[in-house]
């Protein structure tokens, strides 16, 4: 007779050997570092040009984002349509993305077309002209997009909580207004591009089942450009974090809204702090996944929300521990109370061996799944290298998950999960 | 080429195995042949609410999540108008735990009053989060009702209204379960670092003894051909005017599906598409415009949707779209455009298939459509499409009388 009551025998996470496949590092003639992850079974690849050209480096709001966004909108030889058509013709995806510290150009393509695409990526990096017409369309369209977003409580809450945590003048806390778009000047964008892209600091990642000639092609197209990878004195721009004094906020954004966006957050050190990886485990227990305490209590127990999560922000200078959810207007207060109750319960009592084992196994299983395929591996390496860490960070993290004790987690809860340390915001 | 093996259990459960030894993981995917189109018009949103209840404990296992997490696994599910799909990903060594969990909830749910009570609330919050508390959140409620007069695609997967979800009773849950969640109405796909023989043994062991159930035979009203253009105007508290157009297209298995898919790409897929280039960049009438299709199993919709630049009149914007449609209906697209959209499609398929989870879900979906092996012949069908095909098809589909237009006005 089949035993359906108990789980089949499982292999515990501690038994799994997790290895981060190594990269190959090449230095192009100009000193630019190229990291390659040659893995995978499909003839596809990803190339990522990471520039140190995030908001961190701009002197005026929106300049970094705009320069990054408009890279695809015209060179002296090709207009925006021609650039887009070129990449789309070869079934390739050319994305750009501007974060706080870095700004990226990412190409996903079929191996067989890569040589048709690299010259145009090089053209974008060396010869973007940011036509006035394109800038003007962009400004108007982005203002319209912002108007729509400002109607969304979750969008408004997401901006404000980061401003409270880091200060409105810090790149992590700064956000844009409609007027910022109006005041944006073509020359500012061009100057930024010249300094941070054309002559910028750049690191390149390549991942996939890489063609044998790729490194040679990269050398040919990018090895003679005036780019560099090692940090210069000029790159040392500092920004001071100035958290808000007031801790609790309640705003009305949409008078007819039926749900409030709740954000609760505290400042937290970066990945170099010895508690960081341990708190990642604590965070998992608290609100990191579907089986977490917040989700189990507030969604599955009480039905106050469709989802509630806690997470550590992915930032280089400093992180934050955030709790984020949308809950019915009438249960917003009750939701916040329950969040604090869950903090209290973690401070009061160590978690059980069973809960700890479940957390360990879940986290290891997730990492095992996340390491699947070259693009994910490249993503891990990118994060490690941009945070000035090495592979020990990865292996220490695994070791922490496998060996951290309930007693340590209890102590960390008592160190970091005090309601009075948290900013609290409800936007209705 | 996606290789797979197929078995049929005695109770009618179809089992497909796709081996990929390059991953340490395994995926177990169960697809049930039931979606929102199978709901009673007075009790809509049920298939999706039911998906939530599948996590509220089964007959022998009170807690689905914890044992799965202990096995290093994660899972989720989704419901569409056509189907409901559940998937688990976990380290291949622990695959049997996934069999244990999924087979028990196919055997029988716990039918807990408490779980129903909580999930009713959770789904109501989901409804609010995505469709009420969001600008333009109600567009597809209105558009579906405009475009479909009898077919159950008239309503959204989440349900027509909150009250339908609030009034669900446990008896509804039970009868739905025994009607739809039976082996004969399901497809099981196991993929990843697995051996077909052992998957077959595990499937036999865990699913083999579940009573087959009755094959559900779908008899849905067929949407009649639309012969007169329809139009709806609404006002809402949104910052910008928006314009939506829908045209009826064929079913997923219609031979012209591939032509229509490529047609929407030429028109409005990406920044080098016609609508974007002409209406956003040249004429500056829209801040954003795109076209796509719903890709549903029964006859679906080609969609054009855009947000207007402040100050542009709705009829001017509409007229500009019509001009683009006239153009594509009267002149063949260029060979370059055709090659471009075919290359984009090839690439999209390859990138999607990189993930073993996507491969598992796609195999299940194609099997439900009739044959999992269709997954391997899709690209040829796209390659066979000609510029003439696109011209002819655009004249049929983008016919004015086949159109449903929604003017969504900002009232501020």
Q: Short description, anyone?
A:
Chain A has 428 residues and is an alpha+beta fold. Chain A has helices at 63-69, 80-89, 114-127, 132-149, 153-166, 178-183, 186-198, 214-222, 276-288, 293-301, 332-348, 353-370, 374-386, 391-403, 406-416, and strands at 24-27, 33-38, 44-51, 93-98, 103-110, 202-208, 248-251, 259-268, 305-312, 319-328, 423-427. Chain A folds into 2 domains: 24-235, Cytochrome Bc1 Complex, Chain A, domain 1 (2-Layer Sandwich); 248-427, Cytochrome Bc1 Complex, Chain A, domain 1, CATH 3.30.830.10.
Your description of this structure?
The complex is a heterodimer of chains A (428) and B (412). Chain A is α+β, with helices and mostly antiparallel strands and 428 residues long. Chain A is built from 15 helices and eleven strands. In chain A, helix 9 crosses helix 15. Chain B has 412 residues and is an alpha+beta fold. In chain B, strand 4 and strand 5 form a beta hairpin. The longest helix of chain B is centred in the first third of the chain and has 20 residues. The N and C termini of chain B lie far apart (53 Å). The model of chain B has no long low-confidence stretch (mean pLDDT 96). At the A-B interface, helix 2, strand 5, helix 4, helix 10 and strand 10 of A face helix 2, strand 5, helix 3, helix 4 and helix 10 of B.
